[in-house]
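Researcher: First entry.
Model:
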Amino acid sequence: MQQFLDTTLGGLVLGAVYAAFALALCLIWRSTRIVNFAQAAMAMVTTYIALSLINADVPYWVAFVAALAAGFGLGAVIERVIIRPVEGKAELNAVILTLGLFMVLHGLTAITFGVQHRGFPAPVSTNAIAVGDTSIGITPFGILTIVVVAVVMAGLVVLFRFTDLGLRMRAAAFNGEVSRLLGVRVGRMLTLGWALAAAVGAVAGMLIAGGDLVNPAFMDPFVIYGFIAAVLGGLDSPLGSVIGGLILGLSLSYVTGYIGEHLAPLVALGILMVVLLVRPSGLFAAAAARRV
């Protein structure tokens, strides 16, 4: 029973981490209709910026806010300088650019900060919580991770469902020409979408790095699992991204705890294949309108 409880709690925290990254992917897809393969590298850059500030004795939460601001600015610059020139051309062009951007950011970070592993602090304890004489499989930082992911998800739901800004962002992503005719400043909406997604990615990077070691490749595994979580829940659904992340985290935690860690990637691949075969749009994607 103790092992089941620890495995479940560990899976929830792991799922929240995947969900944090999936939310960034969901946001940029929902606001620009682009799959951003550079999302992990962008989050890695902002995490290193935060680490540099923390090492310079800047308080953790000040560095956290600075990382979000850096992510916001980085996303806006990338959209304006790199993505904007291919706007209106084949959709695959922007996707290929994000793959190239992934490699460029990796190289620049390695040159700037080095490739060695560095410890990244957490704002609260990373030791397991004790109930009486028994330690349970969750830490205060794990609880903080779950709370932050829930707050980010709620913010995205409010943004896209209940605000005019969210409606304009979605309209600009779905049909730029019609949106321009209706008075929507499409360019600004796309820039804002990239900036917000990069800021959410910065949050994911800080949560993933907390209490662990970082190097320029520390976000790479989350590219795969984050995409699986987003596709599982529905790339267009913030709630689906979170639930997809939790399902994936719990599944991999049970496999790792009861069968073996080496089977986790195979199970993740199996989940992705089943979802793509049974419901390609994801478990929580809105029903697509059909023209008859």
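Researcher: Second entry.
Model:
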Amino acid sequence: MNQSPQPGAPAPSARAAPAWTAGPPLVLAAPMLLYFAAFLLYPAIYAIKLALTDPFSGRAPVADNFVAMWNDALFWRALVGNLVLPATSVALELVAGLALALFLHQRFAGRRLLRTIVILPLALPEVVFLTMMRSIFAPRGYANAALVAAGIAPVEWLAPGSTAAYATVVLVDAWHVTPIVFLMLLAGLASMPPGMHEAALLDGARGWTRFVHITLPWLRPVIVSAVLLRGLDALRMFATPLVLAGVEGAPVLSTYAYHQWSDYGNEPGAAAASMLLAMMSVLLIIPLLRRRIEE
């Protein structure tokens, strides 16, 4: 025998969800939340506290560490390097990755072998790759041996503070991670409907015109994603300038912080430099993310 609902009682669909349904999502997300709290939130709060603490008296909050950075010439070199090196490296990766993707998207014999060779630097461990690069660009390395054999004077590729040192760091960093941009753009080209190029050919568009008006607009979302991904990663550049040129050869903020911590034992100074790098990364990436979301 069916019971009729009591007058004034809410309809079954309008009742609040049982309390137990909120449990499983929270339980599943708990490990990740605990991980972020332990390895991201707590270290970040501790670093901020350390950056605002006087290294000698322990007073807090004070801006002494930031004032010391302001008066340090190496800090300003690191700040400029942290802007110039990532921007130059990402631009070089984008041009090289696009050229390689366009070339290796064509059908010809040996295409798979060439694709494998192109992504080989990315497969190597970073320490192994950088050790190889250092042996190439050392004063008596393979690069200078090739120049001398050709009758050309050797070059101080890694002389501290020189333009050659900055250029070498950019070249090596781009060489190592260009395969990421290459693979993203190659996937974008593979997703392009073949009918688009056929229609463009029927309309008389060839060569450069077809590239500018068909290929580039199609790849635009992929290019923006590649710049976002690599731009954020390049801001954290650390191992490449440190292994190749040392802490003062081509300094960036991460190597400056490492220099303060390892050579001077100045943990508050290192925390202040790291805090500045984190703020710079967030401030530079938010406008790009907002533009990407709006698109």
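Model: Note on the second entry: Residues 73-104 form the longest helix (32 residues).
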